UniProtKB/TrEMBL annotation:
Record-linked SUPFAM superfamilies: alpha/beta-Hydrolases
Alphabetically ordered keywords of this record: Hydrolase, Membrane, Transmembrane, Transmembrane helix
Record's protein name: Alpha/beta hydrolase family protein
Domain of life: Bacteria
Domain AB hydrolase-1: 175-291
Length: 404
């Protein structure tokens, strides 16, 4: 009877000793790949949230009681903020305009009730950060024309708001661009000052807006493609006799304007730009949002790398890679050729004002920064509308010579 050598016992039931390092290495690689995949998925999910339009906007507060000139609602970070705001009621069929906070008491806040268009009832409501609602005629009493721009992606609805008949009509028109997840209503606040200065305004929609064509992926491109839609509003102004245009942009609308100024064949007709809480650097915004959401900043940066990579269309539903270098305007400050007024709150919780400040420091010859305090994102006008309009009017008179 032949006995097995001790070193060969159970050789079919356990790995050979020389295989052990390879097994350990394989386990480590598998674990590493799994972790790497999870991190990449988190990074992609984080960036995808930024790229995805918020089409469904459910009620987010509740009217608890209505008194003489007051309304009490559920307290949230938004409803207790300084300034004047709006409240959509009855599924959006009614709208209230609210003034400053009169009393904040734990879970509730009582604000001044300035005006209401329609029934004012206790029940669910949706916060309106723009204060104004509807088209220009309804919201402001300013005559307007509904037009459709024939964009490359399909029909793009727009408003054309003529100037006051009491002042000379300027040969410069304004094109107003709203931000991410917003609507054209965000631009309503700028129309009265333009109307008084004799400036005709065009307020266009752009791809993936609720009232505009949705692309197959249905994702924002952070301004990388949207600028081409805004260019059609400039063409409309030129066809109707404008000799030049001034661009307005809020938040991502600012990023869209900056892309247009650097990439459009019509950049030469732009006399200047007014940017409110603009995205001057998407990397900075994503870094900030990662910290707010307790996600490592390097995960956000990985997401941006994936967005600029060859697999961007598959991972994010975009048309192609988004070149993030295009959006760092502090680094590209020497490329600017247009004068700008930048309005930004130092208390902006979504788009920090640091890059706007750095841009103004890098190009003091072109960029004038007007800083606010106590205003949340794109709410400088809400907190101090008189100052916002005064600063904008002063800059337009100085740079464009309008309203004189």
């Amino acid at each position: 009877m032949t006995r097995r050598h001790p070193d060969t016992e159970h050789e079919t039931s356990r790995p050979r000793r020389w295989l052990a390092p390879l097994v350990a290495t394989g386990t480590a690689i598998t674990t590493g790949l799994l972790v790497s995949g999870l991190v990449s998925a988190l990074a992609a999910y984080f960036v995808r949230r930024v790229l995805t339009p918020e089409r469904l906007k459910p009620d987010d507060t509740e009217v608890l009681s209505v008194g003489p000139g007051t309304v009490t609602i559920r307290a949230t970070d938004e409803t207790v903020a300084r300034g004047r705001f709006g409240l959509r009621l009855a599924g959006g069929t009614s709208h209230a305009r609210l003034g400053e906070v009169l009393r904040a008491d734990g879970p509730t806040v009582t604000r001044e009730l300035v005006d209401v268009d329609g029934p004012m009832k206790v029940g669910p409501a949706r916060w309106n950060p723009y204060y104004l609602a509807g088209e220009p005629t309804r919201a402001l009493g300013l005559p307007h024309e509904d037009v459709v721009l024939e964009g490359d992606v399909g029909p793009l609805p727009a408003w054309v708001v003529p100037p006051s008949e009491d002042v000379p009509t300027a040969d410069v028109w304004a094109v107003l661009v709203h931000g991410r997840g917003a609507t054209r209503e965000e631009c309503l606040r700028a129309l009265p000052v333009l109307h008084r200065l004799g400036v005709t305004a065009v307020v266009p929609s752009y791809r993936n807006d609720a009232d505009a064509p949705a692309l197959p992926g249905g994702r924002y491109h952070l301004g990388d493609t949207e600028w081409a839609d805004v260019e059609h509003a400039i063409r409309l102004a030129l066809r109707r006799g404008a000799k030049g245009v001034v661009l307005f942009g809020w938040s991502m609308g600012g990023a869209i304007v900056l892309q247009l100024l650097s990439r459009s064949r019509l950049q030469h007709v732009v006399r200047g730009a007014v940017l409110d809480a603009p995205v001057v650097s998407w990397a900075d915004v994503l870094d900030h949002q990662a910290r707010v959401n307790r996600i490592p900043v390097w995960v956000a940066r990985l997401g941006l790398e994936l967005l600029s990579g060859r697999q961007a269309d598959r991972l994010f539903g975009v048309e192609g890679p988004v070149e993030l270098e295009r959006f760092d305007w502090v680094a590209r400050a020497n490329e600017l050729r247009h004068r700008m007024l930048v309005v930004h709150s130092d208390d902006d919780e979504f788009v920090p004002s640091g890059p706007s400040r750095a841009l103004a420091q890098a190009r003091p010859d072109l960029v004038r920064l007007v800083s606010f305090r106590g205003a949340r994102h794109c709410q400088e006008w809400n907190v101090d509308p008189a100052r916002w309009e005064r600063e904008v009017a002063s800059w337009l008179r100085e740079v464009l010579g309008v309203g004189r």
